[in-house]
From TrEMBL:
Domain GFO/IDH/MocA-like oxidoreductase: 153-216
Protein name according to UniProt: Oxidoreductase
Organism: Flavobacterium sediminis
Lineage of producing organism: Bacteria, Pseudomonadati, Bacteroidota, Flavobacteriia, Flavobacteriales
Domain Gfo/Idh/MocA-like oxidoreductase N-terminal: 2-118
Pfam families the record matches: GFO_IDH_MocA, GFO_IDH_MocA_C3
Alphabetical list of SUPFAM superfamilies matching this protein: Glyceraldehyde-3-phosphate dehydrogenase-like, C-terminal domain (SSF55347), NAD(P)-binding Rossmann-fold domains (SSF51735)
GO MF annotations, alphabetized: nucleotide binding
């Protein structure tokens, strides 16, 4: 079993601690949190071993799970990697693209593996349909959340939209050509609502909307491709695949048939895959353990996390230009 330690025992850090404790692929050694009052409380309440410094924790483990505020990701990752430890970094990978590129370079130099916590890649609804998403040409996403003061220290693009950016980049095999975006700061100092139109070199267009001041939560994506429409509800963990094929010469009574202006008939049918319930955070952590043990490529690489961050900053730059 891989020995793992967690940096940061805030809301998400406590979730990681709980899941790593129950995992059969890790041995949870303990955690470090710089806020002594919180660290003492977490250690007392849950019985996890508390370390008094980052250095002590890193020295005691094989894998460092970094669940600290984004501003400290780079510093924590550098310390861990230079000690020869594998790193799991919560999203976004770091505060700047330059920092992210530095993490990639160091990981290669010290021959350690890294994964970024883009958890929607492990959402059971997305996993169920990902293999059916082929060359989508239009994508529409809505990620709306009720207001929560936690996370408002960064723009909504880095807080929420980056989930959808990563998912989109994982299925669109083309480079970004152009970005147009607008955003509005309502409660926070940075934008709380944002919309971006991302155009790819292969002609695909993604329309991405995120809000953290909505009346209800929503996390939905729709993928349109030739002869198929695929929808993913990340929140409800359900998906739908609607496909078209040439209509039979003699349609059945309940067949759904469309005919275009040229007289070509197509049959619409549903091909909904089975969604297997999972814990997405546990899945991402355990597949990272598999990548380390089997010396394979992590599902969400450091490069993936960097590309998502790069596009996020392109969106932020476009919002500031259009403000």
């Amino acid at each position: 079993m891989l020995k793992v330690g967690v940096l940061g025992a805030g809301h998400l850090g406590k979730i990681h601690l709980r899941l790593l404790k129950q995992s059969e692929k890790y041995e949870l050694v303990g955690f470090y949190d710089p806020f002594k009052e919180n660290a003492d409380k977490v250690a007392k309440e849950f019985g996890y071993t508390k370390f008094n410094s980052i250095e002590e924790l890193i020295a005691a483990v094989d894998v460092v799970d970094i669940v600290t505020p984004t501003l400290s990701h780079y510093e924590c990752a550098v310390q861990a990697i230079k000690s020869g430890k594998h790193v799991f970094l919560e999203k976004p990978i770091s505060n700047t693209v330059e920092e992210a590129e530095g993490i990639i370079k160091l990981a290669k130099e010290y021959n350690v593996k890294g994964q970024v916590g883009h958890v929607e890649r492990f959402n059971p609804a997305f996993k169920a349909v990902k293999d059916q998403i082929h060359n989508p040409m239009f994508i529409e996403t809505h990620r709306l959340a009720e207001f929560n003061p936690r996370g408002t220290d960064v723009p909504v693009v880095l807080d929420l939209m980056i989930h959808d950016i990563d998912a989109i980049l994982s299925v669109v095999k083309s480079k970004v050509k152009d970005v147009h975006a607008s955003g509005v700061a309502v409660i926070s100092d940075s934008p709380d609502i944002a919309n971006a139109r991302v155009e790819f070199e292969n002609g695909c267009v993604a329309n991405i909307t995120s809000s953290r001041i909505s009346m209800k939560n929503m996390r939905k994506s729709r993928f349109f491709q030739k002869d198929a429409y695929i929808s993913v509800d990340y929140l409800e963990k359900i998906c739908e695949v609607v496909k078209m094929k040439d209509a039979p010469e003699v349609p059945g009574d309940f067949d759904m048939i469309l005919q275009n202006a040229e007289g070509v008939k197509k049959q619409i049918y549903f091909d909904n895959p089975e969604v297997h319930t999972n814990n997405a955070i546990l899945d991402e952590l355990e597949t990272f353990a598999d990548a380390i043990n089997n010396n394979t490529t992590p599902i969400v690489t450091l490069e993936d996390g960097t590309e998502a961050l790069r596009v996020a900053y392109q969106i932020i730059a476009s919002m500031e230009k259009n403000r």
